[in-house]
Amino acid sequence: MKSLHKYLSYLVRFVVEESSSLHNDKLIVAIQDGKYVLNTQNANYSFGSLHRVFQKAFKIINLKKRNFSSCLLLGGGAGSVPSILYKELNLNLFTTVVEIDKEVIRLGKKYFKLGDYPNLTIVNEDAFVFVSNTTETYDLIAIDIFKDVMVPERFISPVFFDNIKKRLNPNGVAIFNFVSFDFETKQQVKNIEQLLSNVFKTYNITTHKIESMNRVFIVEEV
Question: Which residues partner with 28 through β-bridges?
Fold first, then answer.
């Protein structure tokens, strides 16, 4: 990153690279507020508002003080969550990142050092298929799966949430990020709360408003 672009990016965004894929019509790497960010046409995928959402979510669950050793990240983006885990919180977690889009992974490695974390494994696979087939379990499961600003319907289903429950270790925590921006998505928040309550019957489920539109659901054992 050029120093001039870095400083000027606090005033104006500099687009560094644009690309597309089977899963995203437009992917935009830009320099914004002194750092690289990855955006789609309408949403931030990494290192912008999404980064702040998970910073706050991890603070809510007091992740720094939990004795977790493993993490499953569904919907990896370009590496915001790993950056928080490894660089900001200095945690020694073994993390599996599941990302369906090869182009997002490529951009993550090129601009955001996604491939530089020694305890991180990147899996290029559909997250729904992954949690249906894996037998591994995890202390922390973070779900950040979007098609632009929308969460695909199959990731808001009893089948998906039941598979998350199977993959979650005792005393583990699951975090599910959702964007509520209109009447329909606000109604979906209530539906998600009910679905989670039906699947995680003996767990504590809380909903947190983070940033202006994000609703973060946190699931943990009572």
Answer: 18, 39
